[in-house]
Specification:
The protein is mainly α. The chain is built from seven helices and four strands. Helix 1 packs antiparallel against helix 3, helix 1 crosses helix 4 and helix 2 packs antiparallel against helix 3. The two termini are about 20 Å apart. The chain binds zinc ion.
């Protein structure tokens, strides 16, 4: 059993290292995801601008047609003046010409405004294209970098996993599984000593009979409070009181019902 404890102590550092590498591998793509999100937004903006550009083109075409029609209307009216003989008719046509000129000017102004919008939009689109280009190459570069980092981490993980497998030789798989879970949950500390009657993992005082069981090293025991694997470690000063207090317990041939429950491994099987 001593061997198992020694192995578990060595293992806990390596298993913690394994988890650290696994976490790093999971975290690595996060930076890339941020950049990808940014690029997605840029692409969306770009598409929005392009669809506005298409709509604007149609509007400009329409205004150009309107302008031509207004020009033609004005020219026709001007020509019609030449054939007028009555002065009343002349006045009416003159008014129509004025109206047509205003209409033509309005259309021209609207067209100029739209064309200005179009220029501005083109400018925005070309800026967006530049941003898109930069972000795309950043994503590609980052992706390549991350691939290298991940493959390095993966080979580190492979060698650590190999170490874990070698060291855990002889330890039952179920115990190893439980131990790994404890390390994961309990801040990389899966095996801790008892000093006196106190679990050094959670600082809880354990019943003397239980401590005595742990001390016998006949089996692997888990702390009922923090679930860590326990081993007894002699500490100066603590030992005397322990020996004194456990004297009665050692004379006790059968553990009490209470203690049996207490050391029942199944209780902690969720770890
Ligand atoms: Zn504990």
């Amino acid at each position: 059993m001593k061997d198992t404890f020694v192995k578990l102590q060595k293992l806990q550092g390596i298993i913690a290292k394994k988890y650290e590498i696994e976490d790093k591998i999971k975290d690595v793509p996060k930076d890339l995801d941020v950049k990808k999100d940014l690029l997605d937004k840029t692409n969306k903006n770009y598409l929005d601008l392009c669809s506005r550009e298409s709509a604007l083109k149609v509007e400009i075409q329409q205004l150009e047609n309107d302008k031509l029609a207004a020009e033609k209307n004005r020219e026709d009216l001007e020509k019609s003046v030449e054939t007028i003989v009555l002065s009343r008719e002349y006045e009416t046509v003159s008014k129509d010409i004025e109206t047509a000129k205003n209409e033509e000017q309005k259309t021209r102004n609207a067209l100029i405004a739209k064309q200005k919008n179009f220029e501005d939009l083109r400018e925005k689109i070309s800026i967006q294209e530049e941003i898109q280009k930069n972000q795309s190459s950043e994503v590609a570069e980052e992706g390549e970098k991350l691939e290298v980092i991940i493959s390095q981490l993966q080979s580190e993980l492979d060698s650590v996993t190999k170490e874990v497998n070698e060291l855990s030789d002889g330890i039952p798989e179920s115990m190893l599984f439980k131990f790994e879970r404890i390390i994961r949950k309990k801040n990389n500390l899966g095996i801790v000593p008892i000093h006196g009657t106190v679990c050094e993992g959670c600082n809880m005082t354990l019943p003397l009979q239980f401590v005595n069981e742990v001390r016998k090293e006949n089996d692997v025991h888990f702390c009922p409070y923090c679930s860590r694997v326990l081993f007894y470690e002699e500490v100066e000063g603590e030992e005397a009181s322990f020996t004194f207090e456990t004297k009665d317990v050692e004379d006790d041939a059968e553990p009490s019902e209470n203690l049996k429950d207490f050391i029942n491994d199944d209780e902690f099987s969720d770890f």
